[in-house]
## 1
Amino acid sequence: MEYAEVSIEGIIRKLPCGMIDGRAVIVTGKYLKVAAIRDEEWLEGDILPASEHFIADLRRQKALGADLFTFSQKLTDPTPHFPFYYEWDSVAAIPIVSYSDWWNRRVSRYLRQDVKKAAKLGVVVRPFSFTDEHVKAIASIYDETPIRQGRPF
């Protein structure tokens, strides 16, 4: 039996995990064991390409002991594609076509005023590509702080 470390409400837990068709499936729950595709919101392409084959493989993995299997579809594809029971989820999302569209039409005027005020005080504001290098730079700045939320880090 393989295990995956997952953060649930800020607590790292080891959950039973199995690989099916290149997808990691984790199982949560004590009495009713619910299987779900790990990090499905971050996966590229179809989350569940061949549902019947996938579910048959999941049933064969007795070690997981799943009673229920849950999955979602991409936000950009709201039409149900599978003949299973489903429930709608409320999602707050806005389409972002371009930076200028977002800046001029989606952002409140108060935010634009605050950014302009900060620019007058010497803060440099400019759009940039979100890459791994930027994430590492931001993380290094946060890692310099010895205390976070009043506790030693």
## 2
Amino acid sequence: MKLRLPVLALALATMTLGASAQIGLYLNPIVTRVSNSQPDTGPFAFLGQNQTSQIFGGIVIGGYYEAYHAPKFDLSIDLRDAIEHGNDASMNNFLFGGRISAKPMKYAMKPYAQISFGEGRTKSPLNPISATKFTYDVYGGVDRPLNKHVDWRVIEVGYGSLTTIGSALYSGGQKAPTASNLLNFSTGFVFRIP
């Protein structure tokens, strides 16, 4: 966890080496619906006692590096960290992935799709212990250029999975933990560096 921001800074700094490359940086609000198939009733219940879903909110900070340009699309790598809270619990997803975006005409909408993998750290509202597990997300969104250096991220929708902290991770005799479904929405601005 302590290395996430330095890794992000180093990755973005080394990406500026390409002559025709473009970087996009963003710091946007995010809302995520976290849901489980069965409620947790123990002292590590991430969503709260007997709850199967909860809404989390926070910020997502990240950036992408357009590594390949074709006439109709661009291929990028994306690095992001989503920090969210809800019901006195916390969730932090650090993700790295690939992104493809369409290249429409000037001032048109730019749709994109992305798949990311990484680690997610969750902490229950009832206990100070946290758990870090594998996570993934699939995103789709639309950016609209406002000028040469700023895009409006009209919407980004993501769906993913993360095994959150729960009583099954730490208590014997309970069923193995199931992954939580993550449905997230984000909007905001992307600042592009030519």
## 3
Amino acid sequence: MTDGEPLLITREQSYYHDITEFFVLVKEGIFAKVAPLYEKGLSLSEISAETKIPKTTVRSALINGGIRLRQKENSSHVKNWQRRGKKGALPPYGFCYFQGEIVPHPKEYKTLLVIRKLWQKGMNSNAIATELNRQRIPSRMAKAWSWNAVKNIVDRLKNNQLPIKE
């Protein structure tokens, strides 16, 4: 900027240089602009969309200005999942989530029964993995079976952690 030009406070005012437009954002100006919107009940994303100020900048300005941020509310489907037992992790091999509950997976469950049958015959994890790969039965990620993946399944079988039905 040249000498004597006032300090720019908001994005509406800008300084042009050739073809690039530079925006000067002053923290006090940002806080003065976003605080009333947040007090009205707008979310950080809504404020960001309305003011064209990045969401992280809006958040920082509010926190530095002494405003305590509201807690995020879970949407209704997340609350239903939590109530029914839906967790963030994948379900065990052979099972899937359906309407928030763990049910047998249409494709994986048959393979789980094969693994159980081989384990009951006395085969170890490495031998079971070799047999599954020989039969070209894909794993959950459509890769070759590793002894460790089979060992995890066998450990769950040993500890009765899988609700297997005949």
